[in-house]
Write a structure and sequence with these properties.
Elements: E1 9-12, H1 19-30, E2 35-40, H2 46-59, E3 63-69, H3 72-78, E4 84-88, E5 97-103, H4 112-124, E6 138-140, H5 144-153, E7 162-166, H6 176-182, E8 186-190, H7 211-220, E9 224-228, E10 235-238, E11 244-245, H8 247-255, E12 262-265, H9 271-276, E13 280-283, H10 287-297, E14 301-304, E15 308-311, H11 320-333, H12 336-341, E16 348-354, H13 360-372, E17 378-380, E18 385-389, E19 392-398, E20 404-411, H14 414-431
Parallel strand pairs: 2-3, 2-4, 3-6, 7-8, 7-9, 12-13, 12-14
Antiparallel strand pairs: 1-5, 4-5, 9-10, 10-11, 14-15, 16-20, 17-18, 18-19, 19-20
Helix pairs in contact: 1-2, 1-4, 3-5, 13-14
């Protein structure tokens, strides 16, 4: 089974992510790329992960520069001056997870061919280290955060808003509050101290985890609430009425500002088809695939319902920090609640089911058999199984980062939504028997 999921290599530290594996990752990358920049989020296992990566990379003769704690988009932007970048993070996963994301100088994630090449070298083992006089050197890299802030401020005008900002104790603690204040916002912060135990809330910025943010926006009379995940590639929002605004609707809002087509994964809302028309390019789930489509099709914008957005004129990395600043500038023109209420609105539902990691192959086989019997208008197998019906659709796919099988369902009314979710859930339960 591939080490890479839909966003780098990650897993539970100690069982799936071991020091030996991380050292081999560093050696595999260091044997191919001579200059590497490494950043990290706030997780408690950061130090041991970083030392292992550095040891592996320098043992192959690569020179390494360390940024310290930065957001993923900060690290990806800083990669422009290096042959590649490595970000130590497990993004939105719980604190016991960690991993490595890999970036090219243009800010794009390693593509499928690069991932296969790295994985082959990891599996082969890198036992033949360079001689003592060719071992790589490790430096400290200063200025990545300031460079990221400067770049965004060159693109976004001053914004006069009252904002509540929830960084989730993650890597945006040292950039988003500073950026928003420099843009002219009054900023009230939540969970803006770096803490790898994530005491305020779990790193995934979903509505269930953002109760404090929703309440604070209303209590402070704020114009906007912003929340990030653990490494800052994601961003979701709360409108001035204290309502959660998910990635699907933010995708639609951003898409409405860009002329031409957009790239989104197979699990994105059908609202986008109504806004953009026939120029919606569907991809596999994962920002790497959205990024590849943007480059191949020459498009300006793409993103995922999870809250990642890629702006090609900025970087090919999902940038939740830039997205937050852009949304704030949009809200200054018009309240977020009004923009959201003007969008087409269809009910959408998501569920997930866990399974034992060693049962993955069996689940895949069972799902294939079950979906062969489904009668629908169209069955897409680009990534998992998306069954389209006249009034809605459901998608069943295995997570690329966790041992979970996920269901996404969208329909034109609640009755159809419930029926489609019931049908999809029945299929999944049979697959897990």
């Amino acid at each position: 089974m591939s080490l890479f999921g839909s966003s780098g290599i990650r897993g539970q530290v100690g069982s799936e992510i071991t020091i030996d594996l991380v050292t081999r990752i560093g050696a595999a990358v260091g044997s191919e790329y001579g200059s590497i920049i490494i950043g990290n989020d706030t997780r408690t296992t950061t130090d041991l992960m970083r030392e292992a990566l550095v040891s592996g990379a320098t043992s192959m003769g690569a020179d390494v520069s360390l940024t310290g704690m930065v957001s993923t988009p900060t690290l990806a932007r800083a990669s422009k001056d290096f042959e590649c970048g490595l970000m130590i993070t497990a993004s939105h996963n719980p604190p016991e997870y960690n991993g490595v994301k890999m970036w090219n100088p243009d800010g794009s994630a390693f593509d499928s061919e690069q991932m296969r090449s790295v994985e082959a070298r990891i599996e082969a083992g890198m036992e033949h280290f360079v001689s003592w006089d060719r071992v790589g050197t490790c430096y400290n890299h200063v200025g990545a955060v300031n460079d990221h802030i400067k770049s965004i401020m060159e693109s976004i005008d001053q914004v006069d808003l009252r904002i509540v900002l929830d960084c989730g104790c993650g890597a945006t603690c040292n950039i988003s509050p500073i950026l928003m204040r420099r843009l002219g916002c009054q900023v009230v912060t939540l969970n803006c101290q770096p803490d790898g135990y994530f005491p305020g809330r779990l790193p995934e910025p979903n509505e269930e985890h953002l109760t404090d943010l929703l309440n604070m926006v209303k209590a402070k009379g704020a114009d906007l609430g912003i929340a990030h995940d653990g490494d800052g590639d994601r961003m979701v929002a709360v409108d001035e009425k204290g309502r959660f605004v998910d990635g699907d609707r933010l995708l639609a809002l951003f898409a409405s500002r860009f002329k031409g087509g957009i790239a989104v994964p197979i699990n994105a809302s059908m609202i986008l088809d109504e806004i953009v028309g026939n120029d919606v390019v569907r991809t596999r789930v994962g920002d790497v695939f959205v990024s590849q489509a943007l480059k191949q099709e020459g498009l300006d914008f793409g993103g995922e319902p999870s809250g990642t957005y890629i702006f090609s004129d900025q970087t090919y990395c999902p940038d939740g920090v830039y997205a937050a600043a852009l949304l704030a500038s949009m809200v200054e023109e018009r309240p977020l609640s009004e923009m959201v209420d003007d969008l087409p609105s269809y009910p959408i539902s998501r569920r997930s089911f866990e399974f034992q990691r060693d049962a993955r192959d069996k689940v895949v086989d069972n799902l294939s058999s079950e979906m062969e019997a489904v009668e629908c208008d169209r069955l897409l197998t680009l990534d998992g199984y998306r069954a389209d019906f006249g009034e809605g659709w459901f998608l069943i796919r295995l997570s690329g980062t966790e041992p979970k099988i996920r269901i996404t369902t969208e329909a034109r009314d609640d009755e159809v939504l419930d029926r489609l979710m019931e049908k999809a859930t029945y299929i999944v339960r049979r697959c897990l028997e």
